[in-house]
Amino acid sequence: MLAYRLRIDGSNTSMPGVVADFVEALAGEAGLTTHQTYWLRLAADEITTNIAHHGYRGCGGVVDIAGEIEPDRLRVWIEDDAPPFDPTLYDPAPRLAVPPCQREEGGYGLLLALKKVDEFSYEFVGGRNRNILVMQLLGRDGEAGAECPRDS
């Protein structure tokens, strides 16, 4: 099992690039497919952007990101000290009930991102929000849990 950690300031304007680079490096090390990497990066970017803009209200705050590569999955934790917010309770139904031409912009990132990772969970632990994103590792035959070939 390999583990990686990153701590960033939520007010840092380069945060999305830093998060993307971190997730892409993890995904590459784990052997995720291009599609898996894209969706995991999108989900991590959406969570961290929401923390910075809504949780910390643009005033800055610490965002910790950790990644762990296990034999069958890549797990990414995103933690912050903003007020509690459980993304799994977000209900997009009212926004989706409006005809597309009348919908307001924004508010769809969580819906899109969290449906594309293999597992997503949230917990509030020790006064911190913890978002957990999981992608299953795919083997040569495309099935989760199979060994992935790696370049030496």
Automatic annotation (TrEMBL):
Per UniProt, the keywords (alphabetical) are:
ATP-binding, Kinase, Nucleotide-binding, Serine/threonine-protein kinase, Transferase
Q: Indicate yes or no for the key word Cytoplasm.
A: no
Stretches assigned to the Histidine kinase/HSP90-like ATPase domain: 19-136
Q: Does the keyword Nucleotide-binding apply?
A: yes
User: Could you tell me one molecular function GO term of this UniProt entry?
Assistant: ATP binding
Protein name as catalogued = ATP-binding protein
Q: Which organism is it from?
A: Nonomuraea mangrovi
Write the lineage as a comma-separated list. Answer: Bacteria, Bacillati, Actinomycetota, Actinomycetes, Streptosporangiales
